[in-house]
Amino acid sequence: MEKLSLKDIISKICKEETFEAVSSDYSFTIKIDSYVPYACAAIHDGHQFRKELWENCIHTEYERWYEEDPETKNMIKSHPIVIAGCDSRFEYDLNRMPEEAVFETAWGKQLWHEPLSQEMKDKSLTKHMNFYKVVHILIQKLERKYGFCTVYDMHSYNWKRWDREVTIWNLGTSNVDNDRFGDVIENWRKSLSEMAFPNDIKSTSKINDTFQGNGYFLKYITKNFKNTLVLATEIAKIYGDEYEQIIYPEVVSAIEKELIKRIPEHALSVYEAFKS
């Protein structure tokens, strides 16, 4: 992996070059092994937290980790196109619009001892803006090249805090065209329900059961690209213990191996259905 400036990353995508890089400010990674009509994203995978913010932050390292989506990049790392955030959503949230991306409170708790200066906010918002510049160029390239593109927007959620039984997989579809895409969404839900996990975990999948797909990443792409379907795909944190801050690597590995097969199969079927 090489370190590249925003300008160089965009240039490589425009020239349809393959590469693997971290942005020069270390805020996100991108890998393009080949140009295919689908991409994978793990925008909440990051845990980095700018050191100059540490003393002012009320939340602990564990509290930040608890609300992030650890290992989601590892679940999709083998696919040809992967973009992932490196920074914690507690610095800025890539799944919120710029005006709301830097939190004042987080999950009902004040985040900062003292309000952030505009300079501190601007450092974070610049990284948010640059990420979306790359996303825009990437989806534009794929849509122009293939006529249609699918984005697998991977997230995870804390299932133990729910006061009812919840699904392993949740698809959030409230902001996509369900009349147009309902059949392929259902096919993706069904495929996820058939996954095999270790440790006697049985896969289940539902649509809009725990989350409805209200994230800015999905909304941004859907608004700007009419022939790209974003599938907000959330997995319950069955691959670890959310209270003990433990990851079960054998479960993460099993998820990755299942997705190696299931994402390309589904992406091809979507492409065949909607290519121009």
TrEMBL record:
Show the SUPFAM superfamilies listed in the entry: Zn-dependent exopeptidases
The superkingdom listed in its UniProt entry is Bacteria
Quote the protein name from its UniProt record: N-formylglutamate amidohydrolase
Species this chain originates from: Flavivirga rizhaonensis
